[in-house]
Design a protein that fits this description.
The complex is a heterodimer of chains A (about 290) and B (about 350). Chain A has 2 domains: about 1-45; about 50-280, MetI-like fold (Orthogonal Bundle), CATH 1.10.3720. The radius of gyration of chain A is 24 Å and the shape is globular. Chain A has 12 helices and no strands. Chain A is mainly α and about 290 residues long. Chain A has helices at about 1-45, 50-55, 70-100, 105-115, 120-135, 140-165, 170-175, 180-190, 195-210, 215, 235-245, 250-280. Helix content of chain A is about 75%, strand content about 0%. With about 350 residues, chain B is mainly α. Chain B has one domain (about 100-355): Orthogonal Bundle (MetI-like fold). In chain B, strands 1-2 form a two-stranded antiparallel ribbon. Classes of the chains: A mainly alpha (about 290), B mainly alpha (about 350). Chains A and B meet through α1, α3, α4, α5 and α6 of A and α1, α2, α3, α5 and α6 of B.
């Protein structure tokens, strides 16, 4: 009996140690997270001031000046990408949810899922061929096309998911009133799933806002304010990359500032998404 | 018995899942479907032919957009092939798989093997470090943590996925690489130098640094999927092990992990797919030297990294060769991805049957 107990104690301790290692694994993941947040905010936030945000004179390597053109560039590029990508994604999602039973729909699902995991640089190369190649120069439009293409599979998936959560009784109630299917879908189904659609759109926006690789091969970089979508442009992520790899201190400092700005925006969007979904769950059901 | 379709369960775990496993014709789960338009007898009696034509039109429009998704995928492949045809034609497959990448050399050489090697080694380091850590986190979240702690902790781990990769790169350049150079690499060289792995005149910007950074970046993906896999293990499996006197670790080791093994393997491969395609963070810390490296502390380069660094200024054959690299990267990423999906799906489907 006593021998058995000792054996058991040994196993118990082994269990504790190994499970302790699992807690340790969690800490291993948290340390880099905290370190990144600390480094970026402690070095970047002091850089952010009104000159940094609004100064119209932009330098690449000299001290002074800000990133106003990059902020505007990011807004233009991601805004245009959303205008292109979100409607495509929503329409494709409507098809999958409301009409998608057959083999074709299954292929769409499969391709959109594999598509969502494509390396982003490959999608940048695609935009390089179809936009930069055709126009002959880098442009905001090229960057937007690349990011829009990245948004499509994400929005398609989330749209289908949220439309599937709409109870059939709601659709049937509308159809029973003699409202045609297309109006039912647009006015009843989509509007019931509104919150889910917004979350999906935000999710995809948060994802593309931090993208750099597709932009490097499409927007060209610029020290000026873009006037039209055919102009070359800078972007926040582009400033971080250029500054960090420049080896020049003034540019590195700007990179930290831009990174802090970027991180704040991305984290705020992510936290808002969390908040919205948690509240919806609290209200009962994921609608 | 399942009262709710799958989607309700997924919705309850937070935001909608970011990836789907497999289409139904490859064995995917069958979700609840709304009725088809054609199958609505009520509609036929109540609405006129105009409404039906409008319905058909609306369906056609949505179908067009759904088709666009497939078209985009083939468009991406097609554009890469189109732009790279000059390289395949003039250089030939042999030269593209040569062992030197010297775009500025006399003559210029476009062998992709050092870059393929760099991509494989960094990704392998990433899963070697990242996967055990992720599985540990998943064990903590699914087997140990009290329910109130699970939500917040998984949200925090997922924040790692929200950080843009260029910010990882910035942190890598100014914090991780100098830190590893100062306090870790000298010790590795002193204690483990005999293995031959940790050689090279490192400045901190090396293959190993890139691998470690990638490991951190794949943790949220791999741990989230592993958690799903563990959650799919039926409670009876655990209870049976507890009932014969197993300790908690033995339950995890002998009952939970073997049951979800295929799924964990799939999670690791999906992590590998992420690592293979990652561009910015790697290009910023790997040192960007287009040659074979012997030791892990030497600088190297990967395919995505070269694409990011050179496409911008390239022209002619060089540009075309870069697109050929894009094709290679695309094929590798695609194969890894499909394999991962099949594996994860298999285990989650088993779990459905068992329940």
């Amino acid at each position: 009996m006593i021998a058995a107990d000792r054996n058991y104690l040994l196993r118990l301790w082994k269990s504790r140690v190994l499970l302790g290692l699992c807690v340790g694994a969690l800490l291993v993941a948290l340390v880099p997270l905290l370190s990144i947040l600390w480094e970026v905010f402690s070095r970047g936030i002091p850089v952010i001031n009104s000159d940094f945000l609004f100064e119209r004179q932009i330098y690449q390597f000299k001290e002074g000046g800000g990133v106003a053109n990059a902020i505007l560039g990011s807004v233009y590029i991601t805004g245009l990408a959303s205008l292109i990508g979100i409607p495509i994604g929503i329409m494709a999602g409507v098809y999958l949810s409301e009409y998608g039973h057959g083999r074709f729909a299954e292929s769409v699902r499969f391709f959109s899922d594999v598509f969502a995991e494509f390396p982003s640089i490959v999608i940048g190369l695609f935009a390089y061929v179809v936009v930069v190649g055709v126009m002959g120069h880098f442009s905001i439009l090229a960057g937007s096309v690349a990011l829009a293409v990245m948004m499509v599979p994400i929005v398609t998936r989330t749209t289908e998911e949220s439309l599937q959560l709409v109870p059939n009784s709601i659709r049937e109630a509308s159809l029973a009133l003699g409202i045609p299917k297309w109006r039912t879908t647009l006015r009843v189904t989509l509007s019931t799933a509104r919150a889910g659609l917004v979350t999906g759109a935000m999710l995809s926006f948060a994802r593309i806002f931090g993208e750099t690789a597709p932009l490097i091969v499409t927007i060209g970089g610029s020290l000026y304010f873009a006037g039209s979508i055919e102009d070359t442009s800078s972007a926040l992520t582009y400033v971080v990359w250029r500054g960090a790899t420049s080896g020049i201190e003034a540019a590195e400092i700007r990179a930290w500032g831009a990174a802090a700005l970027l991180l704040i925006i991305v984290l705020v969007i992510n936290i808002v998404i969390r908040f919205v979904t948690l509240r919806r769950q609290a209200k009962g059901g994921a609608l | 018995m399942r009262l709710l379709p799958m989607t309700h369960r997924e919705g309850a775990s937070g935001t909608a899942p970011r990836w789907r496993l497999l289409p139904r014709w490859l064995g995917g789960a069958r979700g609840a479907r709304p009725p088809d338009d054609g199958a609505d007898p009520l509609l036929v009696g109540l609405t006129g032919s105009g409404a039906r034509r409008a319905d058909a039109l609306f369906k056609g429009i949505t179908l067009l957009f759904a088709g666009l998704v497939i078209f985009l995928v083939f468009g991406i492949v097609g554009s890469l092939l189109y732009q790279s045809q000059e390289a395949w034609a003039t250089l030939g497959i042999g030269a593209l798989f040569g062992d030197e990448w010297l775009p500025g050399g006399q003559p210029a050489k476009f062998g992709s093997l050092p870059l393929v090697w760099g991509t494989l080694v960094t990704s392998f380091i990433a899963i070697l470090i990242g996967v055990p850590v992720s599985i540990g986190i998943a064990i903590f979240l699914s087997e140990m943590a009290p329910p109130w702690i699970r939500g917040p902790v998984s949200v925090i781990v997922e924040l790692l996925a929200a950080i843009p990769s260029v910010v990882y790169g910035l942190w890598g350049i100014f914090f991780l690489a100098p830190f590893l150079y100062d306090s870790v690499y000298p010790r590795l060289q002193a204690n483990w130098g005999w293995t031959g792995l940790f050689t090279g005149q490192s400045t901190g910007y090396s293959v190993l640094t890139a691998g470690i950074l990638l490991a951190i970046m794949i943790i949220p993906t791999v741990s989230a999927i592993s958690r799903e896999v563990f959650r799919a293990v039926p409670a009876s499996q655990r209870e049976a092990a507890f009932a014969i006197g197993a300790t908690k670790w033995e339950v995890v080791r002998k009952a939970v992990i073997p049951y979800g093994r295929t799924g964990l393997f799939g999670a690791a491969i999906l992590g590998l797919a992420r690592a293979v395609g990652e561009t910015m963070a790697v290009t910023m810390v790997i040192g960007n030297r287009n040659a074979f490296f012997g030791g892990l502390l030497e600088p190297g380069n990967t395919i995505p990294s070269v694409l990011a660094n050179e496409t911008y200024e390239a022209s002619g054959v060089h540009l075309s060769a870069l697109f050929a690299l894009g094709v290679i990267l695309f094929i590798v990423a695609l194969l890894i991805n499909i394999a991962a999906r099949i594996l994860v799906k298999r285990v989650l489907k088993q779990a459905e049957v068992a329940k």
